[in-house]
Amino acid sequence: MSGNDARHMTKPAAPLSTSPNYCALRGGGTFVAIEATQGERPIILYAGPDMPGASPADLATLATQQHAPGTAAVPLRGSMLNEMGTGIPGPNGLLAHRNGCDWAIDLRLVRLKQSGDHALTLHLEDTKNKIAATHELAIDQATGVLSASTRIENQSDAVLELEWCAALCLPIDPRLQRIFSFTGQWAGEFAIEEIAPFQGSIVRENSSGRTSHDSYPGLFAGTQATTELSGPAAAFHLAWSGNSRLRVDRHKDGRSVLQMGDLLFPGEIRLAQGEGYQSPDLVAVWSDTGFNDVSNRLHDFVPDRVLDQRSRSKPRPVHYNTWEAVYFGHDETALLDLAERAAAVGAERFVLDDGWFGGRRGDAAGLGDWWVSSDVYPAGLHVLVSRVRQLGMEFGLWFEPEMVSPDSDLFRAHPEWVLRAPHTGDVPFRGQHTLDLTREDVCDYLFDKISSLVSEYDIAYIKWDMNRDTPFPSNADGRAVMHQQTRAVYQLIQRLRDTHEQLEIESCSSGGARADYGVLRHTDRVWTSDNNDAHARHQIMRGASHFLPLRVLGNHVGPKTCHITGRKFAMHFRVASAIFGHMGMELDLRRESEADLATLKAGITLHKRHRELIHNGRFVRLPSSETKNSIGCVARDQSEALFLHAKLDTELHTLPARLRFAGLDPARDYRVRLVWPLVNPSLSRPSIIEAAKLLADGSAFSGAALMGYGIQPPLTFPDTGLIYHLEATD
Ligand code: GLA
Fold first, then answer.
1. 530 tagged catalytic
2. How far is the CA of 413 from the centre of ligand 1 (A)?
3. pLDDT digits over 390-439, tens only?
4. Disulfide check for 355: which of 328, 424, 459, 503 has CB 3.0–4.6 Å away?
5. Which residues is 132 bridged to in the sheet?
6. Distance of alpha carbon 716 from alpha carbon 672, whole angstroms
């Protein structure tokens, strides 16, 4: 059997039983098969790794359903939203009504438009309930990543109340029984939680008003046998920085369906005639070769399809951020001193953090007053900015535009500009309120203030922070507006970027609480976590690497005693933990010894030498555990690689297990050298370091041996990061 090509679907609607119509999207190893017959409910038959030769019509036959006792007399096949009118006995992807009626929505295909193999738009209508829907699906040909979204439009003169609209109801392979969600907290982002196989549903909801620390809008899935480097795997992400709901439901007939969408507050979306609601994008990707390949596909998708291209070819500058060095104690002389020291160890961008503006001498005041504080900088920032430039660094500045402190000129002038529920006291949160960015006057105020500072000081970079939840996202009319607020934030950032074409922006939200693909469409980097603990950072970075490439993940060398955990770390380990990422520093350089500054400088030099490989190579997440973290970056042509093997704790055996590299060409030989730390870290001699001359010229081994047999790491103290450089000898 072969399917009719939907691109040629010109004939009138035909009964489903006699002439179903099919279409397929294919690219980058992904295959999506859809039954799309005019006048019928469209159905996703399959979405996953490509199966050469498979046609949608074949899959429809192979999936033939029949009556089972105790169920409806006809098979209920659902639709792309499994809306209520389909009768499907599983959680619906669309919940809407008009004053309690018109909820049994049943959308039928009106027309479709397909562009080549990679993009499809389906227009649907429910003529009785007067609702239209548009599904957009596209496969990125290079990576196989599927993007999908839905738009709902009200076609009646009575208001349509929308309660839930998933981007799509996406069937997933029921064998993907292991689901991994990404949870955490402030200073402990991207913790991976494995959800045991279940019947029924798993749901993750986030109504914090930001992407959140604890409920990242992304899931991984695999079988019991899937590892980083083998087996069926999938990843799903909602490209959205507001409230979210993720769910996976195992229907009673055995199907698994995934939904991701915008978690709406009561009455939040009320559509008048002709008005529409656009869901955020669902991003999905599959692989037959393990979790790491799924991440690789996402890592290629982000720079190609998510980030704008302004920072694409520019090496990611090494940061110096002032926060942990001075906090709110801004002092021009001290900052000039820090700038000199930062440049001396290799910083390329100096970011002046919180505390430079208005009455912001602590976290209780000043947000909203976006002018340089004359108390701290009587002559403005000119002296500091020009010195930073003379030292060869870019200048970056911290803002938290969406927020206002009650103790600020802005709040005194415009108390009505904040989001808050009438009759309900605000939940206190870092002494600040969320501004209502759905108001044009608020956005104009913020744009004018920020834009004029960017122009005045020729600011290259903004750290855009957002440090509170917004439990009551209510405008002056008492209506919840978080969806609109999220879009307004994107628009404001984009307006600044359109005006200042070289301006780069970092998304920060109390560390990594806003690090999704929605915000990354308008920003260049995320601040992964406030936790600069060189030990804890491994879990955070490893977790984040599931969705985000190293080039966007801010990763800083912190002070000897971590301010958040109180733990102490040698400089060689602080450096090793920061090299794989968008490297920076966030420490008081006046308090570091000369020896440690020399180590830091050497580490930054090493990062710069290899950053092209780190930021544009192919990322490898090797199997790891609580006692070790092993990752690497392999050149696209497999000519070289850089691997980090961080020992985090003592291990079960007297000697560390052999490190098996991955991603190399088995047929080539590679010269292996240990490029970090700079001195022999082995606890006893001789070791592999002498045997293979790892700290000297190194030794060459076959790629096959390095991957299949592996190298014995030297025995070291915990909290040692070994960095190996591998170079093909041909
Ligand atoms: C947040 C950020 C920090 C720092 C402070 C400033 O917590 O995550 O990096 O910028 O705000 O107040």
1. yes
2. 26
3. 999 999 999 999 999 999 999 999 999 999 998 888 899 999 999 999 99
4. 328
5. 125, 153
6. 19
